[in-house]
Amino acid sequence: QVQLVESGGASVQAGGSLRLSCAATAYTYRHYRLAWFRQAPGKEREGVAFIVSSGGSTRYADSVRGRFTISQDSAENTLYLQMNALKPEDTAKYYCAVGDYVGDPFIASNYDYWGQGTQVTVSS
């Protein structure tokens, strides 16, 4: 059973930075992708960024491109999300997810395993 545990969420002021971490147990996909999603109260869960296991290619939502960076430490089975220049609209609960390399990477249903989430609150 794959387990994902996020950490690093906090309350910060606009313009600040945070680094989220997601520690994962080993997964057995041959090719997989890891992703960060977020969900604000009353809103749908939206994809923020993903990274592919082979080659490490990444993609970002337009709303975070240039401010957020996704990375992974394969040896430690840890996924990161470096968030810079945070804005109040980045306030949400952030989740990491892992799934097979199929389908639209920004659709939540294409991921099989999820963490419990970590809260990020950005004040103006």
Give an overview in words.
By secondary structure, the protein is an all-beta fold. The chain has strands at 4-7, 11-13, 18-24, 32-39, 46-52, 58-60, 68-73, 78-83, 92-100, 113-114, 118-123. Strands 2, 4, 5, 6, 9, 10 and 11 form a seven-stranded mixed β-sheet that branches. A four-stranded antiparallel β-sheet has the order 1-3-8-7, with no helix packed on it. A hairpin with a 4-residue loop joins strand 7 (68-73) and strand 8. The model has no long low-confidence stretch (mean pLDDT 92).
Please describe the topology of this protein.
Elements: E1 4-7, E2 11-13, E3 18-24, E4 32-39, E5 46-52, E6 58-60, E7 68-73, E8 78-83, E9 92-100, E10 113-114, E11 118-123
Parallel strand pairs: 2-11
Antiparallel strand pairs: 1-3, 3-8, 4-5, 4-9, 5-6, 7-8, 9-10, 9-11
